[in-house]
Amino acid sequence: MARIRHKVLSVVGARPQFIKAALVSRALRNTPEVSEVLVHTGQHYDKNMSEVFFRELDIPEPDYNLGIGGGTHGQNTGRMLEAIEEVLLRERPHWVLVYGDTDSTLAGALAAAKLHIPVAHVEAGLRSFNRRMPEEINRVLTDHIADLLFAPTEVAVRNLLREGIPPDKVYWVGDVMYDAALYYGEKAEGQSRILSKLGLKPKGYILATIHRAENTDDPVRLGVILQAFAEVHREIPVVFPVHPRTRKRAEAFGLGPLLDAVMAVDPVGYLDMVMLEKNARLIATDSGGVQKEAFFYRVPCVTLREETEWQELLDLGWNKLAPPADVASIAGLLESQWVGSEGNPFGLGNTVNLIVQKLLSS
Asked: Which of 96, 213, 269, 318 is most deeply buried (CB count within 10 A of its CB)?
């Protein structure tokens, strides 16, 4: 039996992190002399937002499930910070690995830094340049805490260097989500039955996802988005897996009838979501991860925000911004059809291997 020389503690808590961690975790656990400790903060605690992803992505059962979620950003981050610190004191890993830009990301990075444990950040260097977004604060702070910064694109590398982060900490490795798209896209084709279940035809519907606080917590913005979906649904089905928080806010704002005006469904599993993405005519979203998945499957995407972290997708023409201010303009974009340019700035599909190799050699 190989002697453990590298203990990596991975922190996850939300759907995009489960996807990113799935392949990295598998690679770590298949590497001799490596021990991984998986910590699930509980940030996404709904069964369809958490348990199903662990099952479908073959992610190992978490070594620690902290059960922290449902509070404000401050409450979540503070409680996670305290709980993760206790785990770190018990486990004493060589590295703490964090993903993306959630409260779980920042809490994991802060807890490790306070204990002088090196931090590696997967998906470093993303910038929307909108400091009103909680995710922007999380990603900026995590990048300036981290000791290894795994950037998905050359634009992300430039963002980090522009902020004065030492070049020897920054590594362009490509995007682990591209690795996942290749692996799970094929798996979804063989296992998902979501299209027949919902009575959908390939390229015969629009897929919508909304979850960001800037949209869900503002009754005007949310109303504009839902009205646009309802208007478009008269011409082409709008399939809308509704995030629990989005449904709660819509009902609180008296917008529940607009959910009834589209094909609003409960959150779906990852393989079903991949199948819906691959076969959509167009995707409307405010999610950074879904924007990329749309691109990987070459599906046009309308991003319902003023900005995006993924400038590359705008440059290639696969993504268009639609600030939620006017129903008619959003509906017009959703009903239009276009294709972008060729090219892929997200690597060669070997990002997971590059991350693991760098962790083990550092």
From this structure: 96
What pLDDT sits at residue 357?
Answer: 95
Pairing mode, if any, of strands 95-99 and 64-65? unpaired
Going by pLDDT thresholds of 50, 70 and 90, the confidence category of residue 110 is very high
CA–CA gap between residue 131 and residue 201 (Å, rounded):
40
Cα–Cα distance, 269 to 328 (Å, whole number): 32
Q: How many contiguous H segments (helices) and E segments (strands) does the chain have?
A: 17, 13
Beta partners for residue 301, in sequence order: 283, 319
Q: Is residue 57 within 8 Å of residue 19, measured between CB atoms?
A: yes
Q: Which of 44, 211, 233, 243 is catalytic?
A: 211
Active-site residue, 94 included:
no
Measured over the CA atoms of residue 150, residue 276, residue 294 and residue 224, the dihedral's sign is: negative
Place of tokens 């802060």: 110
d(CA 56, CA 53): 5
pTM score of the predicted model: 0.88
Structure tokens at 73: 């950003």
